[in-house]
Every structure is written in C-alpha cells, then in structure tokens.
C-alpha cells in the first residue's frame, strides 16, 4: 500500500528573506520554497538576488527579488510591500542580512563598529517591525488569519566571543535580546518570533577566513561533528520555525553549530 506524501508545511505562505541572494539567506529561501512558500529575496545586491530568484523559479518555485538595504527603513518597508503586491500578504519574515568586519579591538574603527551594528542589529529591528506591522494589519482585516512567523539570524558568537569581531559579537547578542523582546510584544497578535544561531557554515564569509588548511583545521577543531555546516542546514531549521511544526515556540534561539557550544573551547 502506498503512503501519500505529506503536504508541504508552508503551502500558500508568503515569505521575505533579507540577504537572500547568497549564503545562508539563499539556503533559507531554498528550504522555504521546498516547503511550498512563495519567497521574495531582498538583498542589497539586486543583480545577485535576481539571479538567485531566477534559479529558484527555474526549479519550479515562486520567487521574486527586490533591492533592500536593511539599514534603511524605506527599503525594509518596500521589501514587505513587494511581497504583498506580488502575492497579497506576508506570513514569514526571515531577518538574515548581516556583515562582519574584523580588526584587533584596540584598532577597530568607530565606522566599522557602526557599520556592523547598523546592518546586523538595527537592520533586524527595521525589517521585523515592517513585517510585524503588515502582519498585524492582516490580522485586523481577516478574522481567519492564521498568525505570522518571524525568524531572526543570530550566531554562536552571540554567546561565545572572538576578540577580533567586537561589533559582530555585540550585534548578535543584541539580536538575541531583540528577538525575546519582539516575541513578547507580538505574542498577543499571534506572531511568533524565534532565532537561529549558526556555527561555522560554508559561506563566502567563512571562505574568506578559512583560506588555508591551517585556518580550516582551527575551525574544525572547535566543531565536534568534524565538518563545516551547509547553508541549507540552517534553512531547514528556519523552515521548521516558520511552520506550524513549531506552533508553541516563541522567544527561542536554536543553535545549529555542530556541537560547538557544547564543547565551549578549541581543542
């Protein structure tokens, strides 16, 4: 006897992923699409977002691209509007866009610190506020509204510091606090807010610091599973948090790090 395939968990849902053109953001978009969501890739690099959206569309998914600098309130609101204009609503926001700038603490410039916090923390605030306002408006217009889900992107570096990335450490710690605050503020509206904290994931950022075998070995020495994670492995957890499979979860940070936090030091 054949068993019917389970319906996609996000069928009919509409999502925006910031920083969705590549890396973890694109991994999130692929996982959301695989679960049936329609996805807007919002990225400061519009050409890259369009290429990635085209690849998703060629694979049979519903995907679009919009230029978005998450430091700008108007851009965050425009990304939300793009989803609503194209597909009539917004159900899921993945606030993923982020940058890192490394320098010895005594030499780090004020500008570098400000740049990282502006994207990684202020950008999450602006993105999520724009999304939440749209979701609350939908609730008011539709008595059958099923709620919304917001997923922020934290990091193991929210709790484990690296001295050369002070701005990044501070911004990701702030994301954890902001996530908890939003989860309380938005719970009465039926909007759940959770976060994912990746460890070492195969992205362009990691490639820039793991440029030789010694650097790669240092990364693997702090990862009990003995390998670097893939963007889609983060995307699968994001899809879970965006779906009703996590319907009683809010205000949580899930660390997807190959065991790094459990180890808590470098071998």
Give a written overview of the molecule:
There is one protein chain. This protein has 267 residues and is α/β, with parallel strands linked by helices. The chain has a single domain, classed as 3-Layer(aba) Sandwich (Rossmann fold), CATH 3.40.50. It contains 9 helices and 7 strands. The protein has a 7-stranded parallel beta sheet with strand order 3-2-1-4-5-6-7, with helices on both faces. α4 links the parallel β4 and β5. α3 runs parallel beside α4. The model has no long low-confidence stretch (mean pLDDT 94). InterPro entries: KR_dom, NAD(P)-bd_dom_sf, Sc_DH/Rdtase_CS, SDR_fam. Keywords: Oxidoreductase. This is Ketoreductase domain-containing protein. Belongs to the short-chain dehydrogenases/reductases (SDR) family.
Short description, anyone?
This protein is 46% helix and 14% strand.
Report the portion of residues in β strands: 5-15%
What's the structural domain tally? 1
Rg from C-alpha positions? 18 Å
Indicate the CATH architecture: 3-Layer(aba) Sandwich
The residue fraction in helices comes out at 40-55%
**Poorly predicted runs:** none
- Total helices: the number is 9
CATH class reads Alpha Beta
Distance between the termini: 51 Å
Strand tally is 7
The strand order across the widest sheet is: 3-2-1-4-5-6-7
Gross morphology is globular
What kind of sheet is the major sheet?
Answer: 7 strands, parallel
Q: What is the mean pLDDT?
A: 94
Q: CATH H-level name... which superfamily? A: NAD(P)-binding Rossmann-like Domain
Order of helices and strands: EHEHEHEHEHEHHHEH
Instruction: Tell me the CATH topology.
Output: Rossmann fold
* Sheet/helix structural class: alpha/beta
């Amino acid at each position: 006897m054949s068993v019917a395939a389970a319906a996609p968990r996000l069928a009919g849902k509409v999502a925006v992923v910031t920083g969705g053109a590549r890396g973890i953001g694109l991994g999130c978009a692929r996982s959301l699409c695989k679960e049936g969501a329609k996805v807007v890739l919002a990225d400061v690099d519009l050409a890259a977002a369009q290429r990635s959206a085209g690849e998703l569309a060629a694979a049979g998914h519903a995907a679009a691209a919009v230029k978005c600098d998450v430091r700008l309130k108007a851009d965050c609101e425009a990304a939300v509007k793009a989803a609503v204009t194209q597909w009539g609503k917004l159900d899921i926001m993945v606030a993923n866009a982020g940058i890192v700038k490394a320098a010895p603490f005594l030499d780090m410039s004020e500008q570098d610190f400000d740049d990282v916090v502006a994207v990684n923390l202020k950008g999450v605030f602006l993105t999520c506020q724009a999304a939440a306002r749209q979701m609350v408006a939908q609730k008011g217009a539709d008595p059958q509204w099923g709620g919304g889900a917001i997923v922020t992107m934290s990091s193991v570096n929210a709790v484990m510091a690296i001295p050369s990335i002070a701005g990044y450490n501070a911004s990701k710690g702030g994301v954890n606090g902001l996530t908890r605050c939003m989860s309380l503020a938005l719970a009465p509206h039926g909007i759940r807010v959770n976060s994912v904290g990746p460890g070492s994931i195969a992205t362009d950022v990691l490639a820039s610091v793991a440029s030789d075998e010694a650097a790669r070995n240092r990364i693997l020495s702090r990862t009990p599973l003995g390998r670097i994670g893939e963007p889609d492995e983060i995307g699968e957890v994001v899809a879970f948090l965006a779906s009703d499979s996590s319907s009683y979860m809010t205000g949580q940070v899930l660390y997807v790090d190959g065991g790094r936090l459990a180890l808590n030091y470098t071998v």
